[in-house]
Amino acid sequence: MTTRPSKRAPDALRPVSLERNVARYAEGSCLVKFGETHVLCCASLEEKAPGWLRGQGRGWVTAEYAMLPRATHERTRRESTSGKPSGRTQEIQRLVGRSLRAVVDLRMLGERQITVDCDVLQADGGTRTASITGAWVALHDCLAWMKARDMLRGPALKDHVAAVSCGIYRGQPVLDLDYAEDSEAQTDANFVLTGSGGIVEVQGTAEGAPFSDAELMELLRLAKQGSAELVELQKRAVA
Q1: What is the gyration radius of the CA atoms in the chain, in angstroms?
Q2: Residue 157 pLDDT > 70
Q3: EC annotation (predicted)?
Q4: 62: burial class by Cβ within 10 Å (0-12, 13-18, 19+)?
Q5: Which phi and psi (to 5°) does residue 216 adopt?
Q6: In 136-174, which positions are buried (b, 16+ CB within 10 angstroms) versus exposed (e)?
Q7: Is 4 annotated as a binding residue?
Q8: CA 137, CA 133: separation in Å to the nearest integer?
Q9: Distance between CA atoms of 4 and 214, rounded to whole angstroms?
Q10: Would you place residue 83 in the very low, low, confident or very high pLDDT band (cuts 50, 70, 90)?
Q11: How far is CA 82 from the centre of its chain?
Q12: What number of other Cβ atoms are within 10 A of residue 83's Cβ?
């Protein structure tokens, strides 16, 4: 069996924590940590829907994603100073938004929008999966804030959603890659799953040799196990 850099078992997550109410002014917030990857997720409510949704009687949930300049080993330039977000940033924030909308009944929001900002404070692999997992907690608390003020038409949150990375590292399928593994992985995949086990999205790429059907199914098995653990942590966090 291949020894992982972190000495974890192949099916072991990094230590994960979900700390709520960390941003004073946000309707919902969560500081999520997957090992040394730390992401601040803040949910903000706006009393209007996007222009293209006006008059339809339903709301919207979206997300924005960014990495702080020293989230990585060397400083990276703020994207705000370059004029537009990178392709990677746009892809990740769209993924986070899709993942959250998969478990929200938008009709219950009325003509309002919730934006979840995911800011990476420190990156060590898996920033998008940590963002999705923490964003759900921030969204949950924002919806609870709305419910306490009789702003919802009915139950808006249909299920949990969490995400985790899997990959093939030195021939071994493993769960929740950190940067040391991600940078060398033969296959890298991200799985977004609901609390009931439904698949929202799968992103998988072979970095070298193509992976087999059997390897894909093993990665999915690991992801389902890891996602179930993350959902349990979400449940404890919001209990």
Answers
A1: 18
A2: yes
A3: 2.7.7.56
A4: middle
A5: -60, -45
A6: bbbbbbbbeebeeeebbeeebbebbbbbbbbbbbeeebb
A7: no
A8: 7
A9: 21
A10: confident
A11: 25
A12: 6
Q: Which three-class secondary structure string do you get for the chain?
A: CCCCCCCCCCCCCCCEEEEECCCCCCCEEEEEEECCEEEEEEEEEECCCCHHHCCCCCCEEEEEEEECCCCCCCCCCCHHHHCCCCHHHHHHHHHHHHHHHCCECHHHHCCCEEEEEEEEEECCCCHHHHHHHHHHHHHHHHHHHHHHCCCCCCCCECCCEEEEEEEEECCEEEECCCHHHHCCCCEEEEEEEECCCCEEEEEEEECCCCCCHHHHHHHHHHHHHHHHHHHHHHHHHHC
Dist CA 17 CA 213 (whole Å): 33
CB atoms < 10 A from the CB of 197, how many? 11
User: Whole-model pTM above 0.85?
Assistant: yes
Question: Is 59 annotated as contributing to ligand binding?
Answer: no
Question: Which residue has tokens 């759900």?
Answer: 136
Question: Which value, to the nearest 10 degrees, does the dihedral of the CA atoms of residues 163, 169, 173, 174 take?
Answer: -50
The tens digit of pLDDT for each residue in 163-216 reads 999 999 999 999 999 999 999 999 999 999 999 999 999 999 998 889 999 999
Q: Is 128 annotated as a binding residue?
A: yes
